[in-house]
Inverse folding.
DNA sequence: CTTAAATTGTGAATGTGAACACAATCACAT
DNA sequence: ATGTGATTGTGTTCACATTCACAATTTAAG
């Protein structure tokens, strides 16, 4: 099944809806209205409905959307119906936190391998997996069929690791190093830059305050 | 100084430009062209130029933009010229990783306090700060003048903590718990949801592959 | 001094997504 | 049955963002 002429913004928002629905399911909500869903995701109700309408008619007029059903639909649209194999590179502070985080497993992301260059760390166990030697990365990744690599190494070595990954068949990299990675065109990199998120957040909340003040004037 | 009629998309991209420039400065680049900056940020060159033109004429025709100068300009536009006081709630795996991360300081984010509810953790030192009792949070935050709170507590207690924060004058929350937080309208919440980022990334990289295949056909 | 190469800044055209109002539909009460 | 209140689905309109082409400017070389 493939859908045409779906706005990229709609596609992006689908992930927000998925998260909201996952949350609602946890809270045992049976149904949800477009307006409630919109509220959770910080968008407006007509947008939610229009977005969903690109993929079919999932709601019941007068009632709303069935949480479980809609979540299943969206997960299928986003091709998240099977579990994802993840390799972690860099078993440092962030890396170890990620491995021991149990929710990933539940959400279908299985961190099955971890690599490091530090002799002290290689061979040690973190949670349920054993840290392996970065030297073995290319071979081991091939063996296990890894879908995604998480990069949690110091910034300075990130470009070097990027080259190693480029020679495997991994095309998805989630990097915590806030720097550019030169990659072949087909490899996608998402950079988790917390400083940037904080900066953006701060700017937006300050904006709201000053806007509020202006609106109060007349 | 305030700017009018700047597209929100432009505003958003400014943060990308900032990160790229920070990176370029570290690499000791003197100048950068709009096309190079665009490449790093995954946008196109005219967009970079148009975006910057909303705020002034920062470049030199035939040469490009001075990295340091442009970075300073952007930081001023984004109101990031003074350092930001951050409080961390939840000194667990993620929390401790964040505190010991040194780059935040360099980028102007000063994690100056940490709070937890666990008796074992209260009073212990992490990096250069001492974990305090969550009970004291409201008073202590008032005293220190905190600009932003990072929420790194288990999902289940996040809503409860949200209420505590709502009663302080903090209006910016960076949360690692992937759930909705009910907050007064003026409080902004950014949710760092790594599962969602991975899902999005995976979808996009798969898309590229299939698109490539289609293009190859004729 | 003149010309060529590089690169910025920008107005006008184009394209795309958001908003909105409302028809369609459903559950349920009477 | 039938009316009522709630809520979805969508065609149209409008606002906004992107793109493009090119004039303007600078550097460097001949
Ligand atoms: N810790 C944080 O809170 C935080 C926040 C934002 C960004 N980051 C970024 O995340 C990355 C990791 O941060 P961290 O705090 O976990 O650092 P860390 O120093 O604790 O861990 C880095 C790990 O990478 C390993 N490593 C080094 N070179 C390697 C190589 N060539 N191959 C494989 N492994 C290698 C090290 O042995 C170490 O275990 C850094 O780029 C940092 O800038 C961290
Ligand atoms: N660890 C990860 O890699 C990861 C990844 C994604 C999301 N998250 C999310 O980040 C959050 C923290 O994760 P973690 O792995 O650090 O968990 P953790 O259990 O290691 O740490 C949570 C900390 O919060 C403290 N805490 C509990 N209740 C509290 C309260 N009422 N007030 C103050 N402190 C309290 C606990 O004592 C503990 O120190 C969770 O919501 C988790 O879902 C974590």
């Amino acid at each position: 099944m493939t859908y045409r002429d779906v706005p990229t913004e709609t596609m992006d928002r689908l992930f927000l809806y998925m998260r909201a629905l996952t949350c609602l399911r946890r809270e045992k909500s049976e149904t949800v209205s477009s307006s409630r869903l919109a509220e959770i995701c910080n968008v407006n109700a007509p947008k939610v409905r229009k977005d969903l309408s690109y993929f079919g008619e999932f709601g019941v007029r007068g009632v709303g959307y069935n949480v479980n059903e809609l979540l299943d639909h969206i997960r299928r649209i986003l091709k998240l119906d099977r579990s994802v194999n993840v390799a972690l590179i860099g078993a440092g502070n962030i890396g170890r936190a990620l491995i021991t985080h149990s929710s990933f497993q539940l959400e279908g992301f299985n961190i099955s391998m971890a690599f490091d260059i530090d002799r002290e760390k290689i061979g040690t166990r973190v949670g349920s997996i054993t840290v392996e030697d970065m030297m073995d990365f290319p071979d081991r990744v091939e063996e296990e069929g890894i879908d995604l690599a998480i990069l949690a190494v110091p910034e300075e070595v990130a470009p070097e690791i990027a080259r190693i990954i480029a020679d495997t068949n991994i095309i998805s990299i989630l990097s915590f190093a806030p720097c550019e990675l030169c990659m072949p065109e087909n490899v996608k990199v998402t950079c988790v830059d917390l400083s940037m998120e904080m900066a953006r957040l701060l700017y937006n909340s300050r904006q709201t305050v000053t806007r509020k003040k202006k609106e109060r004037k007349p």
Notes: Chain A touches chain B through 60 residues (CB under 8 Å). The beta strands of chain A are 31-32, 59-60, 64-66, 84-89, 109-116, 125-126, 129-133, 148-151, 172-175, 188-191. Residues A 97-98, 101, 103; B 89-95, 115-118, 121, 134, 152-155, 157, 161, 176-177, 194 surround nicotinamide-adenine-dinucleotide (ligand 2) (CB under 6 Å).
